[in-house]
Specification:
By secondary structure, the chain is mainly alpha-helical. Helices cover 75% and strands 0% of the residues. The protein is globular, with a radius of gyration of 17 Å. It starts with a helix and ends with a helix.
Length: 219
């Protein structure tokens, strides 16, 4: 079931004009810079989204498993490594983007608020649906298309390291959340509706986010 849901979400996102134009190479430099700026505003809270979700898990084992995902984001995973936020910040700097001067679009704020809303719900099915099926599970396919857009604009592969590591690692993060979701559903089949609500709200907010990026590029 989760695979089918993910495929449907990926198809919806890949049908958006912004993602289509990344894939076919017609996306512009300006659109990509605005995307990076707004994505930075959203992703700046990622570890806090995850912390909010972890706070509502009832099983200590589940807490530990998602804490491992959090540790990896912070650069404290088994293999060490640099915090993902620092890698992203360096990429933003290389693109010459000044985040302090950039406003948060309404559509970006809506994506941030939607993520927090579901991750903070006492029933973790909402947050797992939002952060797993509505975010982590769709990242590898989505970022692959976005990478194509940057490459079509002559951006060297080494400058896209942030996106590449998430194409490689977010499948594992999504798998961890899916396993927790599956067990929660076995214990409470009614949780499926809450999971789907969180996931679908996130996909809708992300589509609106892409609308905002394209509108911003036209101004």
């Amino acid at each position: 079931m989760y695979q089918r849901i993910t495929e449907e979400h990926v198809e919806r996102l890949r049908s958006h004009p912004f993602v289509q134009r990344c894939r076919d190479g017609s996306i512009t430099d300006r659109e990509l810079n605005i995307f990076l700026t707004q994505h930075a505003k959203y992703s700046a809270y990622f570890t806090r989204y995850l912390c909010a979700l972890i706070a509502n898990l009832h099983d200590a084992g589940d807490v530990m498993r998602l804490a491992e995902n959090l540790a990896e984001e912070l650069g404290f995973g088994e293999e060490g490594g640099e915090p993902h936020a620092r890698i992203f910040a360096r990429m933003i700097e290389q693109f010459g983007i000044d985040l302090q001067q950039a406003p948060v679009f309404d559509s970006t704020q809506k994506l941030i608020s939607t993520t927090f809303h579901y991750c903070k719900q006492p029933d973790p099915a909402y947050g797992l649906g939002a952060l797993c099926l509505g975010a982590e599970a769709i990242v590898p396919a989505l970022y692959s298309d976005i990478i194509s857009g940057f490459e079509a604009n002559g951006i060297a592969p080494e400058r896209l390291h942030f996106f590449r590591i998430h194409v490689e690692c977010d499948d594992d993060h999504a798998d961890t959340m899916r396993e927790i979701l599956q067990r929660l559903q076995q214990d409470n089949p009614q949780g499926e509706e809450r999971m789907l609500e969180g996931a679908q709200a996130m996909i809708a907010a992300r589509l609106a986010f892409f609308d905002g990026v394209m509108e911003g590029a036209r101004q």
